[in-house]
């Protein structure tokens, strides 16, 4: 439609219907992922945590490098997986609901940055597993993505959820016994980088004068409704809701 300012969004949902569809897919993706993690925990427990010993990240061991993609799905105890499951689902869903395809790329990036940080910097041959690196990566992605994409509601939601899981997030402090703060730090760094890599590319709105005018100076009834809808979408977009 000529005369109306347009905002083109690439890489993410562009309206409420698409956003709801992506949120539905995000829910099922995270539900399926969490179910897989729990099934692995059941098998791991039955094997006396042999999977964690065999597929954990061990610093400096070249043969264990591929395990950085597997280790986030494994845990050392029921308390370990229970503590991770809530924030993993919440932050994972928030990271995925604006685009499942981008979320999969983000997950790979965070797993790599978290695992490589442990592999390069951890000392003492420690065997590291757990989804905490993913959690911190998703958290960083959600908060910073809201700034890059001008979806401030995402930033606010991320901060509120961070407050809800404050105890879990404080475990990134160095020196906490039994906690791989390096994995947390690497995951957070991956999430921040991912927010930049997977950001929406938005051309600036183009305005070509006041729309909806006829040659006689009165409003054109054919464009009045569409113009109002465009104004509404723009207002929702400015609020970070679209």
- Please indicate the count of domains: 1
- Anisotropy-based shape: globular
Q: Helical proportion?
A: 55-70%
Give the terminus-to-terminus CA distance: 21 Å
Radius of gyration: 22 Å
Q: Decide which structural class fits the backbone.
A: mainly alpha
What does the average pLDDT come to? 80
Question: What does this 3D model show about the protein?
Answer:
By secondary structure, the protein is mainly alpha-helical. The protein has one domain (16-197): Up-down Bundle (Rhomboid-like fold). 61% of the residues lie in helices and 2% in strands. It is built from nine helices and two strands; from the N terminus they run ααβααβααααα. The chain has helices at residues 16-46, 50-55, 78-96, 100-121, 132-148, 152-164, 166-169, 181-197, 221-238, and strands at residues 57-58, 127-128. Strands 1-2 form a two-stranded antiparallel ribbon. Helix 4 (100-121) packs across helix 5 (132-148).
In short:
With 242 residues, this protein is mostly helical.
Write the layout of secondary structure elements.
Blueprint (H helix, E strand, L loop, with lengths): L15 H31 L3 H6 L1 E2 L19 H19 L3 H22 L5 E2 L3 H17 L3 H13 L1 H4 L11 H17 L23 H18 L4
Antiparallel strand pairs: 1-2
């Amino acid at each position: 439609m000529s005369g109306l300012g347009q905002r083109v969004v690439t890489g993410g949902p562009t309206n409420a219907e698409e956003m709801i569809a992506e949120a539905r897919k995000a829910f099922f993706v995270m539900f399926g992922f969490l179910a897989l993690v729990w099934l692995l925990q059941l098998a791991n427990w039955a094997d006396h945590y042999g999977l964690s010993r065999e597929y954990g990240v061990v610093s400096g061991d070249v043969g264990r490098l591929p395990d950085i993609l597997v280790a986030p799905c494994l845990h050392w105890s029921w308390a370990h997986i229970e503590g991770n499951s809530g924030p993993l689902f919440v932050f994972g869903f928030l990271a995925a609901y604006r685009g499942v395809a981008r979320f999969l790329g983000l997950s790979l990036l965070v797993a790599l940055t978290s695992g490589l940080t442990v592999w390069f910097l951890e000392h003492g041959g420690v065997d590291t597993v757990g989804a905490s690196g993913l959690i911190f990566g998703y958290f960083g992605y959600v908060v910073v993505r809201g700034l890059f994409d001008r979806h401030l509601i995402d930033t606010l939601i991320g901060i509120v959820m961070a407050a809800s899981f404050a105890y879990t997030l404080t475990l990134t402090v160095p020196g906490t016994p039994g906690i791989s703060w390096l994995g947390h730090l690497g995951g957070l760094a991956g999430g921040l980088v991912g927010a930049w890599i997977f950001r929406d590319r938005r051309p600036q709105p183009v305005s070509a004068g006041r729309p909806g005018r006829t040659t006689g100076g009165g409003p054109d009834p054919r464009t009045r409704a569409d113009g109002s809808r465009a104004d509404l979408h723009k207002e929702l977009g400015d609020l970070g809701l679209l």
